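Our platform keeps sequence and structure together, in a single record for each protein. This encoding replaces a full spatial description with a residue-level series of whole-number codes. We quote a single record here, exactly as it is kept in our systems:
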Amino acid sequence: MTNRAAACAALVYTFTVVMLGTTIPTPMYALYSEELGFSILTSTIVFATYAGGVLVALIAFGRWSDSLGRRPMLLLGVTFAAASAVVFVTAGPVWQLLVGRFLSGLSAGIFAGTATAAVIEMAPDSWKDRASSIATAANIGGLGLGPLVAGVLVQFLPYPLHLSFVVHLVLLAIGAVAVFMVPETVDVQQGARPALQRLSVPAETRPLFVRAAIAAVAGFAVLGLCTAVVPGFLSSIIGISSHFVAGLVVFLVFAASAVAQIAARRLDTNAALVSGCAALVVGMLLIMLALSTSSLVALVAGGIIAGIGQGLGFGTGLAAVAGATPPERKAEVTSTFFVVAYVAISVPVIGEGVAARSWGLQTAGIVFAAAVAVLAAVALVASAVEARRSSAAPENSEAAR
């Protein structure tokens, strides 16, 4: 495949398909709960195992594509995704679900960095200014499409716990062929050896990193809540058991995040962080209202607004941190940022499952939403103070003259 536009499109397709597979189980957690008899806590642990796989991949494989090339690592990611789908097709006991989610996390962790770099490097010159946005759309768009596609298949077609993964295997087979045909974008040096990704943040970047990381923690906690627990909220609290509706609600959250991340590239960093944190606070307040009143409208509105907030905060924060970091340390700082984010997508959600066991899903959900709102409010205040300080600095400089 010598045409750069076609090769880039093939990479975007595969990126989307791999990320789609990571969220396919979302509308199925209620069915797994019925068939295997596990609680909301088990659902959150199964979900969090995915984040564990992502973290392992970020640290273990984060720099391998720079040494071995993009294409071998992408093929490895597709292989992990296919292995995950096979495990889910044959899944019986809970331990198999845990294995499947871990493999899915490995595929996502590899693709998050490697596929983004490959898409940007492969993009033709006429696409260069929007290549990063295209990669973002493939990543977040795939995450959103997973629950939507699975929701339709589970709700309206037979074999609800298996068909989605069979379809995913077919899509992955096409993606593997596509990756195999695209040219390599890295000049692989003979004898180069891959290494573990070091995690650290230089002193000069830490203040910005902390502000951005607080916003990322709040935003990713929201994504974890939506992916792992929202289907339970819909069935247990609001009284809607439709798997299609569950998938659609989660899709809207990710779609809002994707649009916001793309739009955030045109905004000032401080303005985007302030707006994103404010949206997270509003979204969490609406979700608290939804859980208190069993309102589907408030839940959907809260999820969309929170998704916008997550997209603004994460996209802008990551770009700002990367821009403020010396080039030779960019990979380790970016990986550190992603590690913080994926810890945030798993640990709080497990806490939600533990709390639901003691307090009930409704109370635990309200407390969780309140905690995320407080965290987002802290990031909001910190970003607003920094924005005010930054705007005052030029005035002080001018007055000194």
Q: What stands out?
A: The chain has two domains: 1-184, 198-401. The longest helix spans residues 361-400.
